Amino acid sequence: MDATSRSPLVLHGRHGTTARLEEDALVIRTRREARRIPVEAIERAEARGRGGRTFAVVLTGADTVAEGGTVRCTSAPAVAAFVARVREEIPVRDAAEAHRDGAALVSVEPVGKRRPRPRATGRQLAWTATVIVYLLVLAWLIAAVRGGEAGQNVLRPISALIYWAVWPLLTWIGWLVAKGLLVETVGPTWGLRTHGITVTGRLVQDAQSLGWFYEFTDQTGKRRTCPAPEQKPSEVEIVYDARNPSRAMTRPAMKEDRVFGLVLGLILLPPSLGAGVVLLVLGVIEIVELYGWVGLIP
């Protein structure tokens, strides 16, 4: 099967970066710009980085990777397939052409302003500090129970100890339940995200059943199909598993599954974690009152 009859490849990288071949040119699009690199300006395409998950393009007349010519991807098979496709498009040239300045043929167009994403800082330090504080308070409560006098006075440290010891257990159980459900709904799309290859599928109607489906070709040239959703655009991006090409989903369907898993988690997490939060609040109240009774050293 020749290159023109195969489904167009789309390489999805981090931070919304995409790369695709359009009209004899490699187009690398980020949130800020679209970089158009004609195939005659490409010296070679390579898979670099750890596990070959970074697509890189070197221009003619240069020995280093072109500016903006890399796409970091989570799927090594997708990078390998895209590198192979780009190499097929690079024309055969003589020695003089190979030393032309390919950077002069590259055009860059702005596509919009990049909105910075807030990133959590010091997360590991925060979790470590939380665990240390929890264990210190737990040890203090145990000392208060052991050092308390018999009778009514010992009830306060015991109740505070129960609240403080049980709330993380309930929170952990609720998290495990919610996480298990999320894995069942979001998990199938994760394998496609890490091992998937994105192609463009074409809408086709079955002559016998009159049903609609998308048709695409994998990297071996074999024609495959993917179920079509209710909304049926004529073309759609399809992600198939490089390890098992018969396993494929449209990119909109993958997003819908992730949203469904998120909504399901939001529905289940509040009641499951609510009991743990209530016990935490009660425990803090008891600890404050207990501190006024026994002081820092029980």
Kindly list the characteristics that best describe this protein.
298 residues, 25% strand, 5 helices, alpha+beta, three-stranded antiparallel β-sheet, PH-domain like
How are the elements arranged and paired?
Elements: E1 9-12, E2 18-21, E3 25-29, E4 33-38, E5 42-48, E6 54-59, E7 65-72, H1 76-89, H2 95-98, E8 107-110, H3 123-147, H4 155-195, E9 196-205, E10 212-217, E11 223-227, E12 235-241, E13 248-250, H5 251-294
Antiparallel strand pairs: 1-2, 1-9, 2-3, 3-4, 4-8, 5-6, 6-7, 9-10, 9-12, 10-11, 12-13
Helix pairs in contact: 3-4, 4-5
Question: What report would you give on this structure?
Answer:
- The chain has two domains: 3-93, Pleckstrin-homology domain (PH domain)/Phosphotyrosine-binding domain (PTB) (PH-domain like); 123-298, no CATH class.
- Helices cover 43% and strands 25% of the residues.
- It is built from five helices and 13 strands.
- It has helices at 76-89, 95-98, 123-147, 155-195, 251-294, and strands at 9-12, 18-21, 25-29, 33-38, 42-48, 54-59, 65-72, 107-110, 196-205, 212-217, 223-227, 235-241, 248-250.
- The strands form two sheets. Strands 1, 2, 3, 4, 8, 9, 10, 11, 12 and 13 form a ten-stranded antiparallel β-sheet that branches. The protein has a three-stranded antiparallel β-sheet with strand order 5-6-7, covered by helices on one side.
- β12 (235-241) and β13 form a beta hairpin.
- α3 (123-147) packs antiparallel against α4 (155-195) and α4 runs antiparallel to α5.
- It is elongated and about 90 Å long.
